[in-house]
Amino acid sequence: MKRAVFLFLMFCGGAQAADTPPSSGNKTATLLGQHNTNQPINIAADKVTADLNNKSVTYTGNVIVTQGDIHMHANAMKVDTVDGKAVQIIQATGNVVVDSPASGTATGEAGTYDVPNHTVTLTGRKVVLVHNKDISSGTKLSVNLVTNVATFVSDKSQGGNGRVTGTFTPTGGN
What we know:
The chain is mainly beta. The protein has a domain at 2-35 and 83-164: lipopolysaccharide transport protein A fold (Sandwich). Helices cover 6% and strands 55% of the residues. The protein contains 1 helix and 11 strands. Strands 1, 2, 3, 4, 5, 6, 7, 8, 9, 10 and 11 form an 11-stranded antiparallel beta sheet that branches. β5 and β6 form a beta hairpin. The protein starts with a helix and ends in a 7-residue tail after the last strand.
């Protein structure tokens, strides 16, 4: 178990482990790097529909959200605001991909960026995180962009087998 947690930490570019070991089917890691959540959020898409009554904007077609060095791509995204100004939640659906230099590329069926709570969550039958040659999968990956703590879960009710899986390629040389 300790080796699996260590490998997960190395895979995520981790610097230190959590104080308590995670339960089966749930892995926690501290990610390398700090994301500045005060940077502007930029969104580009093929089409935009604003719903002023519900204070939301829906972007469709090759949607790309960028904040600093993190990029989220999806078929569609809905942005909910407070009073039509401050972004609250960005909900992504369809072929969601999140790229981060610190942790790699994560894919899922759906994703949520909770802006006030500084968390990005990907969900789906198979959520995959790839960093270099290392691969982890489950049904839910949540990352806190301030604390740099990531939690990977494989939930049977979401189509998972109850266990997070990973394949890690040792580095080192001959």
